[in-house]
Design goal:
Number of strands: 0
Number of domains: 3
Oligomer: single chain
Strand content: under 5%
Order of helices and strands: HHHHHHHHHHHHHHHHHH
Structural class: mainly alpha
Helix content: over 70%
Shape: globular
């Protein structure tokens, strides 16, 4: 069990970090889970294709054989199937709405593949191998996923798409091939160069993460009133900050015979004619859809009817969160715990049987052992049932946005339930520790 936890731990940490770096529109958990499972499933076609590629392995020897193994059997086949499943699942997904999403998706698939590979290596070669792969192989798969996802995100939103799609495969393939070739070569200077190359990969990955996290495809929430006002009435000179927001025609003055009747032209006009001209001007404005703007009362009523208030007021937006999804996952986890508590009852039955057998055979030692089994079984059953109920309550409170501290404590306890409980616990802690989510809990 400790080997499995050692193999899964770095994967969980990397996934939590990448998810945390996705600042804007968090990806749905069901999609990430599907991608992770797809990454685990990709091991099968990788093994099948690798088996077929062994036919050409005997045609090479020395470093050429190492290069074929590194660049073709390992890097080419693995990165191809990772990109295949990533592209197949997310390219048309509605949630793929920013460049950084490509990194989230590709890394999730890579970690699904890495967790299976890591379990096989750790259980086969021991604890020391797990520690070494924790800082080399598993992060390397994440870095390959970052490079793949970076160009996949560019291909989604930038041109030329075909070039970026090609780079989404070529760049991680070359990085993976060089990584494997240096470590497989057995040449001293190449092994030393491998350490330097690994450091460069880390620098490259953080650079790509930093660059991609700055891009946001969807625009920032804007002042709807201000935007529509500017766009709708751009044909007119309107001072929105003026207490008298009147309409003033911005059309060609030649089209309006009255716009040339300025104050200077009216100076020599008979006052009786001036009143008549004013009435004609009013009728002209009214016929063209304009109203007198001695006050802004009519304009305010119109904008309020359309749902716009003061242009200085910024429209409120609902806080996006994953609490409902996390609540469902906690319900599922609680259900599994309650189901697993039935298996703990086996110890209770064994203990009761041993006690009964000891009494029948007058064997005191068997009764003692049976009593221990019975007590431990009952205790274990009570603990598992309690944890299951608490998980279900945590799901209920997450859905209702209540008792944040209780949810936080349960999430910490879930982290010890490797591997799925660990992932769920970490994601829940990250989500409910956000400032905007904390405010949601404070409202109830």
């Amino acid at each position: 069990m400790i080997y499995v936890q050692l193999a899964v731990a770095p994967v969980v940490v990397i996934l939590a970090y990448i998810y945390y770096r996705d600042k804007y529109n968090k990806e749905p958990f069901w999609l990430l889970f599907l991608l992770f499972v797809a990454g685990m499933f990709s091991v099968l076609p990788v093994l099948g294709t690798g088996y077929l590629s062994d036919y050409f392995l005997e045609k090479f020897d020395g470093l050429y054989q190492v290069a074929y193994t590194a660049f073709v059997q390992a890097a080419f086949i693995e990165e191809f199937w990772k990109l295949f499943f990533t592209f197949l699942i997310v390219w048309s997904a509605k949630s793929f709405d920013e460049r950084f999403d490509g990194i989230v998706y590709a890394v999730t698939v890579s970690m699904g593949f890495a967790v299976v590979e890591n379990i096989l290596y750790v259980t086969g070669y021991g604890f020391s191998t797990g520690l070494l792969r924790m800082i080399t192989a598993v992060p390397a798969h994440a870095i390959f996923g970052i490079s793949m996802g970076y160009y996949l995100g560019r291909a989604k939103f930038d041109s030329p798409k075909a070039l970026y799609l090609i780079l989404a495969f070529v760049v991680p393939w070359l990085m993976h091939g060089i990584y494997d070739f240096l470590i497989m070569s057995g040449v001293t200077w190449m092994v030393i160069a491998f350490i330097g190359f690994l450091i460069l990969m880390y620098i490259y990955a953080f650079g790509r993460l930093k660059k991609s996290s700055k891009y946001k495809v969807k625009p920032e929430p804007q002042n709807i009133s201000q935007t529509i006002t500017n766009e709708t009435y751009s044909a007119y000179n309107v001072n929105l900050n003026s207490p008298d927001r009147g309409f003033e025609t911005n059309e060609n003055p030649q089209n309006n015979p009255f716009t040339n009747n300025t104050e200077s032209q009216y100076q020599n006009v008979n006052p009786e004619n001036a009143e008549q001209n004013y009435s004609q001007q009013e009728q002209y404005d009214s016929s063209r859809g304009f109203q007198q703007t001695q006050n802004n009362e009519t304009y305010q009523n119109q904008t309020q009817d359309r749902g716009f208030g003061n242009p200085q007021t910024v429209a409120a937006y609902a806080v996006k969160n994953n609490l409902e999804t996390l609540a469902v996952l906690h319900y599922i986890m609680g259900g599994f715990k309650l189901l697993s508590s039935l298996f703990v009852l086996i110890y209770v039955l064994m203990g009761a049987g041993m006690i009964a057998g000891g009494i029948y055979d007058s064997d005191g030692s068997m009764q003692i052992v049976g009593g221990i089994f019975l007590i431990l079984g009952l205790f274990g059953f009570a603990v598992v049932v309690t944890l299951g109920i608490m998980s279900i309550l945590a799901g209920k409170f997450l859905s209702q946005k209540k008792n944040r501290m209780f949810c936080l404590v349960i999430s910490v306890l879930e982290c010890f339930n490797t591997p799925f409980g660990t992932v769920l616990g970490i994601f829940t802690i990250i989500e409910i520790e956000k400032a905007e989510v904390k405010k949601l809990f404070e409202k109830f």
